[in-house]
């Protein structure tokens, strides 16, 4: 049924669990996977733990962000290799994750987006929003939500 699955990840434990299930699903379906990690654009400056943090130069930020992206994507690539599932890694720059996910799925010709949901409800969902909800709302490609 599905032949090309986009698996977006943020590197969290929930994303890793979702990736494991996505690889299993892909193997059962005879599908291939494109693993996606969206890195933010260079920030001018940001606050952390009450102090102003300088991210350095745009080049340094880009290098560190790409290193982190590859580390996270390598996890999914390894799962795919162990299961015999073809895998492509994709790291893109976009400050708006749900847009990056939909754009990547369209550009890569994916026929399914397989993603996690943190399952927030109440005030947490209202304040934090949900990238999964936004993908569900805006994507024309089917979305499988794993919880």
UniProtKB/TrEMBL annotation:
Location in or out of the cell: Cytoplasm
Any keyword Transferase?
no
Residue span of the signal peptide, if any?
A: none
The UspA domain sits at 1-147
InterPro entries with a match to the protein in the record: Rossmann-like_a/b/a_fold (IPR014729), Universal_stress_UspA (IPR006015), UspA (IPR006016)
Family statement: Belongs to the universal stress protein A family.
Give a Pfam family name.
Usp
Q: Which organism is it from?
A: Dentiradicibacter hellwigii
Lineage, broadest ranks: Bacteria, Pseudomonadati, Pseudomonadota, Betaproteobacteria, Rhodocyclales
Kindly state which keywords UniProt assigns to this record, in alphabetical order.
Answer: Cytoplasm
Q: What is this protein called?
A: Universal stress protein
Task: Tell me yes or no: is Electron transport among this UniProt entry's keywords.
Answer: no
Q: Which Gene3D superfamilies match?
A: HUPs
């Amino acid at each position: 049924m599905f032949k090309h699955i986009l698996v977006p990840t943020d590197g969290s434990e929930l994303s890793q669990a979702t990736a494991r299930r996505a690889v299993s699903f892909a193997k059962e379906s005879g599908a291939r996977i494109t693993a996606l990690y969206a890195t933010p654009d260079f920030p001018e400056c940001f606050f952390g733990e009450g102090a102003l943090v300088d991210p350095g130069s745009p080049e340094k930020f880009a290098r560190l962000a790409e290193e982190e992206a590859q580390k996270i994507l390598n996890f999914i690539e390894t799962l795919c290799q162990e299961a015999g599932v073809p895998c492509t890694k994709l790291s893109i720059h976009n400050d708006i994750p749900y847009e990056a996910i939909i754009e990547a799925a369209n550009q890569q010709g994916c026929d399914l987006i397989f993603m996690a949901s943190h399952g927030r409800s109440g005030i947490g969902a209202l304040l934090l929003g949900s990238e999964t909800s936004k993908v569900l709302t805006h994507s024309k490609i089917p979305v499988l939500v794993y919880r």
